[in-house]
Amino acid sequence: MKLLAIDTATEACSAALWIDRQIYQRFTEQPKGHGGLILKMMEGLLNDAQINLENLDALTFGRGPGAFTGVRIATAIAQAIGFGTNLPVIPVSNLAALAQCGYRKYGLLRAIAALDARMGEVYVGAYEIRNDLANLVIAEQVVSPSKFTLPDNNIWNGIGRGWKTYREQLETSLSEVIFTVHPNDLCEAQDLLPLALDAIKSINVASPKNALPVYLRNQVTAR
Amino acid sequence: MRVLGIETSCDETGVAIYCSNRGLLAQALHSQTNVHAQYGGVVPELASRDHIRKLLPLVQTTLKQAHLTRQELDGIAYTSGPGLVGALLVGATFGRSLAWTLGIPAIAVHHMEGHLLAPMLETVKPKFPFVALLVSGGHTQLVAVEKLGLYHVLGESLDDAAGEAFDKTAKILGLPYPGGPELAKLALQGNPKRFQFPRPMTNRPGLDFSFSGLKTYTWQTLQAHEPADAQTLADIACAFEDAVIDTLVIKCRRAMRSTGLKTVVLAGGVSANQRLRMAMESMIVQEQGELFLPRPEFCTDNGAMIAYAGLMRLLAGQQEPLEIKVKGRWSLQDL
Ligand SMILES: Nc1ncnc2c1ncn2[C@@H]1O[C@H](COP(=O)(O)OP(=O)(O)OP(=O)(O)O)[C@@H](O)[C@H]1O
Ligand SMILES: [Mg+2]
User: Fold this and answer.
1) pLDDT tens across A136-149, in order?
2) What value does the CA radius of gyration of chain A take, rounded to a whole number of Å?
3) How far is B55 from chain A, CA to nearest CA, in Å?
4) Is B181 in the pocket of ligand 1 (CB under 6 A)?
5) CA A99 to CA A94: how far, in whole Å?
6) Which side of chain A, N or C, has fewer Cβ within a 10 Å radius?
7) What pLDDT score was predicted for residue B177?
């Protein structure tokens, strides 16, 4: 199985390849300018692995939530490549990818992934690792950090930059159940790979037309 | 050479395929008027969200219409500015990435160059050099066009663009969004003799414009006639339109005389205005010049003008590096 993953939803810009269990990744943190970087990173990766787009089996991309513009960059690239090659395109949640990152780096089995959503809110989701994969426990949401609540009293861990900006508010509302916090991690394209590899088994049509962003925040005009 | 053109700079998703041998092969357009109408103007984030939903289906429709497969494309052109950055990014990202995927050249197009070359989509094309009067939602410019890519801005609006003035004035008159064409429709019912509006900046030398005063003038006239009946509203619309058209015609004539150029191109969304087209025609006859007008559907934003401009630049040997770049502000003179 050969898979290409791209992510531009946060301050990070990254691309990764899965070539029969071997992972290649390019990653950079740079708040702006993803557009100037990402295609070259992808080309560099394909060169490293000495393969062409046509040799791939599927594409995956971070479909959000995240910075609106960044999410659309990855989405439009995925649509274009999917359309240009006929490859299936698999959208993966950026919050799920963060939880997957927590599992890979710190072995977190229960993670509350949070991204700074600006305007005093976080994009947040709670995930449990089952069969090495992040599974959503409560629906992803955009919420004020002091209003986020969990359904159970299990011990949880925090991951993502939402925990950096709003650590205090999040910890106050979740104080009893939080074990560790990893506030510096960003989404990485390689963490989309396991989730996409799993999704590819169940998604029968992954048409590029259905490769669309998930913003969570839908109120974008002044009330 | 067959070029796919993509336009997403504002509130229209436009796609077209232009062939160097056979001309325009197909085009499709999706207008976001309904998305923005309730807000009385374009909401940038909503525009971007709509573009990313509509662009790929439009590309597929256009290819099907042209009976082509994607592998039969030889280049991809996309608007990379000026315009709304988020909206531009959708078309630029998709276009640049598709070109990379297909292994064909990509070319970023200046939106106003697209407008300026739109008359070239017609069978009888203007020859360089010419004067272009660009009148759109974001621009009012007189440009000396020496040849492809060599543009000298002779004058431009110091405040509101002509289309913007139409839209804002329409709002003052209580007309629905988008105001320009609505105001033009209402003006047809107006008595042109009842009100006389000023012709801003025409009594001093130079080729710059200023339209924001007209909007204030409209507002004051309306205030003086409250409550205004339907006829008064039509009369005001007519007086406003006359003032804009007259001003554009006066300055365009001036530009022709100062450059000695007899060929004129009128382009941009406002050039869809019938009375402006007629007024320009008669001025050009008086000046013994020649006027080139794109058909109304090529006046407003569309993919065809971008495909054409892109084709010209690709034929001139240009292409983009492997980067996605857009510019919200970008002068024609910097091309
Ligand atoms: N019949 C008409 N009479 C007057 N104005 C019109 C008419 N039809 C369209 N317009 C105006 O044209 C403008 C839209 O033109 P266009 O789509 O070229 O502008 P834009 O793309 O928004 O701006 P720009 O091209 O400067 O970036 C609007 O302001 C609209 O009101
Ligand atoms: Mg335009």
Assistant:
1) 999 999 999 999 98
2) 17
3) 9
4) yes
5) 9
6) C
7) 86
**Shortest distance, CA A208 to any CA of chain B (angstroms):** 8
Instruction: Compute the distance between CA of residue B123 and CA of residue A165 in angstroms, rounded to an integer.
Output: 60
Class of domain B126-293: alpha beta
pTM given for the model: 0.96
For residue A25, the cross-strand partners are A16
Alpha helices in chain B (DSSP H): 33-36, 44-65, 85-102, 111-117, 162-172, 179-187, 212-224, 230-259, 274-286, 296-299, 303-315
DSSP β-bridge partners for residue A27: A14
Class of domain A2-93+187-210: alpha beta
Q: Are B32 and B121 in contact (CB under 8 A)?
A: no
DSSP-assigned letter for residue A9: S
**What is the assigned CATH class of domain A94-182?**
alpha beta
The full set of domain ranges for chain A reads 2-93+187-210, 94-182
> Degrees (nearest 5) of the Cα angle A70, A76, A82?
135
Is-cis flag, bond preceding B178, omega within 30?
Answer: yes
CATH architecture for segment(s) B2-117+298-334: 2-Layer Sandwich (3.30)
Phi-psi region of B226 (alpha: psi -120 to 50; beta: other; left: phi over 0): beta
Tokens of B41: 């103007």
Q: Do the domains B126-293 and B2-117+298-334 match in fold?
A: yes
Q: Contact A68/B86, CB-based, under 8 Å? A: yes
